[in-house]
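The passage that follows is intended for readers who have already worked through the single-chain material. We present the inputs for a multi-component assembly, then the predicted structure in tokenized form, and finally a short commentary. You are encouraged to pause after the input and sketch how you expect the pieces to fit together before reading on.
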Amino acid sequence: MNYNWDWNIFFKSTGIGNEIYLDWYITGLGWTLALALAAWLVALLLGGLLGVMRTLPNKWLSGIATCYVELFRNVPLLVQLFIWYFVVPDYLPESVQIWFKQDLNPAVSAYISVVVCLGLFTAARVCEQVRTGIQALPKGQSNAAQAVGFTVAQSYRYVLLPQAFRVVIPPLTSEFLNVFKNSSVASLIGLMEILAQAKQTAEFSANIFEAFTLATLIYFTLNMSIMKVMSIVEKRVRIPGLMVEGGK
Amino acid sequence: MSSMISINNVNKWYGDFQVLTDCSTSVSKGEVVVVCGPSGSGKSTLIKCVNALEPFQKGDIIVDGISVGDPKTNLPKLRSRVGMVFQHFELFPHLTIVENLAIAQTKVLGRSKEEAEAKGIKLLERVGLKAHAHKHPGQLSGGQQQRVAIARALAMDPICMLFDEPTSALDPEMINEVLDVMTELAKEGMTMMCVTHEMGFARRVADRVIFMDRGHIVEDCSKDDFFGTPRSERAQQFLSKILQH
Ligand SMILES: Nc1ncnc2c1ncn2[C@@H]1O[C@H](COP(=O)(O)OP(=O)(O)O)[C@@H](O)[C@H]1O
Ligand SMILES: [Mg+2]
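Having made your guess, compare it with the prediction:
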């Protein structure tokens, strides 16, 4: 096979303005970060709320949360993205439709669709982690919280959630990593995040291996840094004197 | 003597299984009542009905004039006035000892942080654990944790105290340090309902003993009657088993 390896390709001109290929990746990284962080914020808030709802004795609240999880977990992410991007906008009020389809920069409307899609999809997964974390606490803790006079809301706020939060840091970290990986679906609706930039670089330069290797390295570095940060967080909030999970 | 806790014909089911059948008794102000009986007889369930940690389907429980089963009752408020101590301590592991004692005082009773912590420290001094105020529960022994749990309940200035086998999760050498604190409380006139198998404690401290079996209150009599001439065969068997060692 006749392949011209060229690792300097990233510093060469793309032929568009005075951009080099590396600039594309930097733009891509910006989109990926903006997507993942916004979607994660949505997932964390909504998923946390749903996770708490699933542990409440109220049948309606826990039922709603259960339905949500089943719906969003069982429909493939790509299908959900196409629904949010191609179908849902048609059912919005006319003025919002015009704004979304015509006034907005296409990149921004794609961005909104992916954030909503990925946020709601990941919320279902966060919900399950939070629920498991709360249910893993000894039953006596909620009894003790109520016995000192806390309302249900106060029991969660002061006793259950601070403990569950610590338990769910490791599984939530891996959900956070998934958000970064899943954000690459945005390339399918034309949002120029890292994967899309790599594809474009491959097409323009014909250095397909280098193009995707750099994308891989960027994802890898992102993941490693997040894991590092989260393990520092985990150590910082560890409860003194408490056995590590799985101990006892 | 006026009644602090009055339990009237309480019945409770878990699905089809009846845990409590027509339970009636009362605890007067300042009285110490020991509840004993074989494992699974419904002791924990009964005592948890008193502060509504467990709901019951029939009957009524009145605590200091307030009906526990009445849907209009403000249960958190009622519970804040009834101290409870659990078999497995159930301190809040993520908070320091003094925070464990202060948090409900500030969030439920509305005391200032300074006031709540000062009160917490005073109670820790009383149970001999002031030096541990800034540790976490996991750094204390079982006996120490249970003494903190008693102090946590006392910090709310309870009108009565419920104990659910407070010493049965403890190593033998730690049982007495907890019983000593409980004995002292009883001497000060605290109204207490204690599920326990510590018959030495019952003999020394209790006014009355209740014996439960399969969800029924089988014996409910003065301490002297109970240890002198327990009337039911089940109670006699139970006593002979428990007093053997
Ligand atoms: N949540 C529950 N669901 C079903 N059965 C229960 C539940 N809690 C307790 N029980 C049953 O109720 C009975 C009384 O339990 P408990 O009050 O804990 O007994 P004790 O404290 O005297 O050992 C036991 O047979 C137990 O298995
Ligand atoms: Mg019990």
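Commentary: The radius of gyration of chain A is 22 Å. The mean pLDDT of chain A is 92. How closely did your sketch match?
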